From TrEMBL:
This is Cell shape-determining protein MreB. One of its GO terms (cellular component) is cytoplasm. GO terms for molecular function: ATP binding. InterPro entries: ATPase_NBD, MreB, MreB_MamK-like. Forms polymers. Forms membrane-associated dynamic filaments that are essential for cell shape determination. Acts by regulating cell wall synthesis and cell elongation, and thus cell shape. A feedback loop between cell geometry and MreB localization may maintain elongated cell shape by targeting cell wall growth to regions of negative cell wall curvature. Gene3D superfamilies: 3.30.420.40. It comes from Prosthecochloris aestuarii. Belongs to the FtsA/MreB family. ATP binds at T21, A22, N23, G165, G166, T167, E213, N214, V215, K216. Keywords: ATP-binding, Cell shape, Cytoplasm, Nucleotide-binding.
Amino acid sequence: MNVLDFLVINNSIDIGIDLGTANILIYLPEKGVVLNEPSMVARDKAKGTILTVGQEALDIHEKIHPGIITVRPIANGVIADYEATTVLIRELIRKVVPRTVGSMHRMVLSVPLGITPVETRALNDAAVKVGARELFFVYQPIAAAIGLGLDPFEAMGNMVVDIGGGTTDIAVMTYGGIASGESLRMAGNDINGRITQFFRNTFNLAISDYAAENVKLSMASAEELQDDASMVVRGMNVGTGLPESVTIHSEDINDALKPLFSLMITTIKKHIETLIVKPELALDILERGIFLTGGGSQIKGLSHKVQQETGIPIVPSKEPMTDVIKGVGIILENLEHYKPILGLDFKELKKEDS
């Protein structure tokens, strides 16, 4: 190492990022989780420039004139809008990293299981652009497992289901690898979308993202409720263009959501059934249970429904919103130990171009 490299590294910082479809979380060594903000940017429609990001962008979402648009540049856990994502990451990092820090040394970034080479390259390029000197990828269910206190290297089967905003990642892990896994591009945001569609089709009513989220948290359930609840929802009648209020019942909402929960549970069962050729792993999972995490895991009745359908105990996370970023942080502070389960760093990716 020459003197210049030594000075750069000693005036730099390591950083961990959970790049979620709904929220971005940032971890700094010795400080823990220092930021949790929406994955949203506000952009000048004519000029294309980014006006604000994160919580400030969400605060003005759906309350702005036609000259400003708000977008979520991350879809299904990967980059959908490269330039907006780069600005979003850079500006959020600036909120938590002191200006006296010269650069970023190492970055650990969580990614969904189903990430493609093209999507990996886009994340790699964005990380390099915001200043990362070394980049490491970790699959989100592995990070979640570590955040839950599990050891991914032990010769014992662990099943983790991470239901985020854009993806549902299902993984059976053992001995530092994934024996069976899948990234289902259906999660919390799709539930919101189905709720929005329900109001449009049933009442000809356009509702806000906030209203859809509120309905999800208040009424959505993966199993039939004994008592049918109701609530009043406000929106705009598409036909008249005027504000309108309607009363909805939980039974109607949950009928609309049944296909999504059915797909999620069917996929979980599929990956349990693939273990028929590895019965010892299946017995481990039966003994230890299925670990359920991510914001979507908090849907009412979901844990019970999965347990009912699979016959396997469910271990719900106590802090489902932060398991992935906590795992990313543990990896970041013990990088040499966890390197065998991490993806390529960007220096290795660059070699592919030569």
